[in-house]
Amino acid sequence: MSLSTITAAEAMAAPDGYDTIIDARSPSEFAEDRLPGAVNWPVLDDAERAEVGTIYTQVSTFEARKRGAAIVSRNIARLIDEHIAGLGREWRPLVYCWRGGQRSGSFAIVLAQIGFRTRQLQGGYKAYRELVRNELTELPLGFDWRVLGGRTGSGKTRLLAALAAEGAQVLDLEALAAHRGSVLGELPDQPQPSQKEFDSRIWHALRGFDPARPVFVERESRRIGRLQLPDAVLQAWHDRGRAIQVELSPAERVALLTEEYAFFTRDVGALNERLQALTELRGKATVARWQSLAASGDWPTLVTELMQQHYDPLYDRATRAFADAANIETITLSDARPATLADAARHLAG
Question: Catalytic pick from 12, 44, 79, 97?
Answer without folding.
Answer: 97
